[in-house]
Amino acid sequence: MLPEIAVYFGVTIDQLFAMKPEQQMERIENHIYSSRRLNEAEERQIEQQMYTFAENPKYEGQAKTLLTKLYNYQAEQYLLLAISCGKEAVEKTNGDKEAISELANAWGSYMPDWNVRNHHALIEWFSDYCRYNPENRTALMWLMDNLIDDRRLSEAREWLEKLMAIDNTFRTAMYRYMIALAAGENSEAEKQLHELETLEGQEWCWAVTLGDIFTQRQEYDKAIAWYRKGQAIQPSPKYIDSITSIAHICEIRGDKAGAIRAYREVLHLLKEEWGIINGEECEEVEQAINRLQ
Question: Which of 5, 70, 106, 143 has the highest local Cβ count within 10 Å?
Answer without folding.
Answer: 143
